[in-house]
Structure formats: structure tokens, C-alpha cells
């Protein structure tokens, strides 16, 4: 099952942004599968705590914008 974010056409050479994959229809789709990933919280550049790095990367893909790690752990703890 593919998680769909904003639908975008693949750029030249079948390239997509923010971790998306180009499918056979020349459309960028987010294919992150985070189920079963261990939960090591990370605080992101958008000041949101994600359960793990996979969830952060999936959010970046779905929102089609850069989201990076600010620190490891809950934002309330590591940004205070």
C-alpha cells in the first residue's frame, strides 16, 4: 500500500523530492512503511516530536517540504 502525499509529476530522470518514489504513472508517491519500527522519538525542525526517524521522513514526504532532526528525544525536553 502506498501512502499518497501531494501528487506531483516526477522530475527529469524519474526524480522525486523529499523521499518520494516515482511510480509507473510518472507520479511521485510516498512509500514509507514505519509499522514495526522501534520508537526512538526525534524532535524535528517544525518543532513536532515524531515517534521515530521513519515517521519524520514520512511526514516530510507527505507534506513535500524539508523536515530535519533538531535533536533526539521529545521536543519539550530537548528544546527547553
From TrEMBL:
It holds the Pfam family Kazal_2. PROSITE patterns: KAZAL_2. Signal peptide: none annotated. The keyword Disulfide bond applies. Keywords: Disulfide bond, Protease inhibitor, Serine protease inhibitor. InterPro entries: Kazal_dom, Kazal_dom_sf, Prot_Inhib_GrowthFact_Antg. CDD domains: KAZAL_FS. Residues 17-77 form the Kazal-like domain. This is Kazal-like domain-containing protein. It comes from Clavelina lepadiformis.
